[in-house]
Amino acid sequence: MKVLALVLPLGLDTFALAAALGLAGLEPRDRVRVTLLFAGFELAMPLAGYAAGDLAGGVAGTAADFLAIALLAGIGLYLLWPRSEEAEAARLGLFGRARGWAALGLGLSISLDELAMGVAIGLLRQPILLVAVLVAAQAALATQLGLRLGGRVGERGREWSERGAGLILLALAAILLVERLSGRGLL
Description:
single chain, mainly alpha, 7 helices, globular
């Protein structure tokens, strides 16, 4: 159940961005390209983050639990942080036409929260493979849904998705903190 709590917010964030791209109206071949880009990065980034988090967890010892909780809370706050409409519009415009190195940069920008999640899972020394596969699957599904429903969801629905993801991660961080402080353990 807690694995789903880690994965679900990432899907909401991906859906929000894909819905914004859906508003722009991408060609079918571009929808496939964006889906593969999102899913590929969202599969690789938790694995990269896990390697860093596992290494840091060995060094940090018992403080690793608290670092992971702080990281989850930080991701939640990042998703709740308001963004300027101009910056978001520029980023979305680049997604629709990005190729090569630009596509790699944009793939990185959409998957930084997955990287941070992988670090948190590594700090907690939890198995990563299931989480990475679930994140990639939800990325593909959320991207396709967002691209197809983007025009119907609109700006308000997209903002709700991002805020919902942030709130879920903050709640998860609070639950993990209570569990850690009560001595019941994590995940």
